[in-house]
Specification:
The chain has a domain at about 55-135: Ferritin, core subunit, four-helix bundle (Ferritin), CATH 1.20.1260.10. Residues about 5-15 and about 25-35 have low confidence and may be disordered. By secondary structure, it is an all-alpha fold. The termini are far apart. It is flat and about 40 Å long. It has 4 helices and no strands.
């Protein structure tokens, strides 16, 4: 075996653990880890991917707020946890629909956005009423 091959093999043997650690670290930040709370993830959801215009920025900010607000502390009460998670999810839909109304031009999509706002506001009211009625 030549000295160069031996040296390269030795270098790789020493570097491999560091390369594996780096790959695992990158994988952890690139993929959602179900054991990691959403607020600990290293993604900046407030910045749009792609276009950086006003509507894209507004959608990204609404999405980031929704995900932050959905990161509740779970109680083990599936009913309460579902409702407490869905309220910010529905509010996110309302916020995004309002962005559509501010920037969108298609009359059919604007009509859909108005319907989303009406439906989601009613469901949020129902969920808040359920939480209050059940002392949650």
């Amino acid at each position: 075996m030549s000295i160069k091959i031996l040296a390269l093999t030795a270098a790789f043997a020493f570097a491999a653990p560091a390369l594996v650690q780096e790959a695992l670290a990158q994988d952890k930040t690139m993929h959602m880890n179900q054991d990691m709370p959403m607020h600990d993830m290293q993604m900046d959801m407030s910045k749009p991917m792609g276009d950086q215009g006003p509507s894209s920025q507004a959608f990204a900010e609404a999405n980031a707020k929704m995900h932050k607000d959905m990161a509740i502390e779970m109680t083990g009460d599936a009913d309460a946890d579902f409702v407490r998670s869905m309220i910010p999810h529905h509010q996110g839909a309302i916020d995004m629909a309002k962005i559509e109304l501010q920037y969108g031009k298609d009359p059919n999509i604007r009509k859909l956005a108005e319907a989303v706002i009406k439906a989601q506001e009613a469901e949020i009211a129902d969920m808040n009423a359920w939480l209050k009625a059940h002392g949650k």
